[in-house]
């Protein structure tokens, strides 16, 4: 199935995408490790069922040197030995921050405490912003039926540059 609508083929869509990308730059330029950023973005996209974003984050993470094993195990990270304690805390925050409707308390105190153990304030700000931004991106792509399978690393930088 083709996408319902091409957001980048519309003046308002392009303006929004550029501003959205600029918000993402603050996260990308933060001290939050790039590998953590991609793992979190991938997990949020998996939960939201966004094929486009899953494809994008797998491609970008692989291009940045992430291993196929770790990428393949993100969906079941609790049952693995390949993620650091900091990454596990970030993945827990990503899940709880994405599944807000599934938990009455949102992000649990236990998860928040683990995040505080591993990340400084700037990294936490980047992590929280990343979870929110990826959730928004997932919704955009799912609403217009943007399908995964055709993403190339760096694709948006060329379009939005």
Automatic annotation (TrEMBL):
TM region(s), chain numbering: none
Organism encoding this protein: Streptomyces hesseae
Ranges in a coiled coil: none
NCBIfam families found in the cross-reference section: ahpD_dom
SUPFAM superfamilies: AhpD-like
Domain of life: Bacteria
A Pfam cross-reference name: CMD
Carboxymuconolactone decarboxylase-like domain residues: 16-96
Protein name: Carboxymuconolactone decarboxylase family protein
């Amino acid at each position: 199935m083709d996408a319902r609508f091409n957001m980048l083929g519309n003046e308002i869509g392009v303006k929004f995408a550029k501003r959205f990308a600029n918000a993402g730059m603050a996260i990308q330029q933060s001290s939050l490790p790039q590998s953590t950023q991609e793992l979190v973005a991938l997990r949020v996209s998996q939960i939201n069922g966004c094929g486009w974003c899953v494809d994008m984050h797998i491609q970008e993470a692989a291009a940045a040197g992430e291993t196929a094993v770790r990428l393949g195990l993100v969906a079941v990270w609790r049952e693995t030995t390949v993620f650091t304690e900091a990454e596990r805390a970030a993945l827990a925050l990503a899940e709880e921050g994405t599944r807000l409707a599934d938990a009455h308390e949102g992000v649990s105190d236990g998860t928040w405490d683990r995040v505080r153990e591993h990340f400084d304030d700037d990294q936490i700000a980047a992590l929280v912003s990343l979870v929110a931004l990826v959730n928004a991106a997932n919704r955009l792509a799912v609403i217009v039926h943007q399908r995964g399978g055709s993403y190339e690393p760096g694709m948006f930088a060329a379009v939005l540059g």
